[in-house]
Design brief:
transmembrane, mainly alpha, 83% helix, globular, single chain
Length: 236
């Protein structure tokens, strides 16, 4: 394993997660796949993302929209087993290609000022998609990010509700992964070594969060989505 690359991935992904509420899995998972097997990369991502959510949940509690959170959680329950089946039986490169196409198309619509109203059925659907992506490729963020951006959600509400949802989705997904796929020593040793980097990222991310206004936050969101879509498109 390239230790230097591992340090850079975890540190920057932790900063992004803390400052925006959605960035760890989007940034970390694709690059962790360069260093680990798909199972190891996904489980390391799940463990560290869960640690971040646990560390931040008290600070962001006031920003959580609990009604939307409940619908996300309910929807994700249906998506989690679907994602596991995809991970076990579907060709991962083809899955990445499909996810990439969807992310790039929807991001283009957002850039072109396409907007949609937040509704209860859409909340359930987004939760289901996020659950499916969590157990299949370890990336629950894109559906939430696209949805919240399309509804012009305030950055505080986006960050708080997303982190609270991650606390649930990562816990359940990790349990499902270990139970049905298995785990190994590399996953847990690498996660333990990464924890100090995560806490450094938490500290720096909180500072950066205070500097980001709503407009820059939106632009940054689009850049992250474009990066993710393009990376998945070519990483096959």
């Amino acid at each position: 394993m390239d230790i230097f690359l591992f340090v850079i991935i975890i540190l920057f992904a932790s900063i992004l997660q803390t400052s925006t509420g959605f960035g760890f899995s989007i940034l970390a998972t694709p690059f962790l796949l360069l260093l680990f097997t798909p199972m190891e990369a996904i489980q390391i991502n799940l463990i560290l993302s869960l640690m971040i959510s646990c560390a931040l949940i008290r600070k962001i509690r006031k920003d959580i929209d609990f009604q939307i959170l409940k619908r996300f959680v309910t929807g994700s329950v249906a998506g989690l087993p679907i994602g596991l089946l995809i991970f076990l039986f579907v060709d991962i490169p083809r899955l990445k290609l499909g996810v990439s196409a969807i992310i790039l198309l929807l991001t283009l619509l957002l850039i072109l000022k396409f907007r949609l109203a937040q509704t209860k059925p859409r909340d359930f659907l987004v939760g289901g998609l996020s659950g499916t992506l969590t157990t299949s490729i370890g990336m629950p963020g894109p559906p939430l990010l696209l949805y919240f951006s399309g509804t012009d959600t305030e950055k505080e509400k986006l960050r708080g509700t997303t982190l609270a949802f991650y606390l649930f989705i990562y816990s359940i997904s990790l349990f499902i992964q270990v139970l049905f796929v298995g785990t190994n020593q590399t996953v847990w040793i690498s996660s333990i070594w990464a924890l100090p980097l995560v806490f450094i990222g938490l500290f720096l991310g909180q500072i950066i969060y205070r500097w980001i206004n709503q407009r820059y936050f939106q632009i940054f969101t689009y850049l992250i989505l474009l990066f993710t879509g393009i990376y998945l498109l070519f990483d096959r």
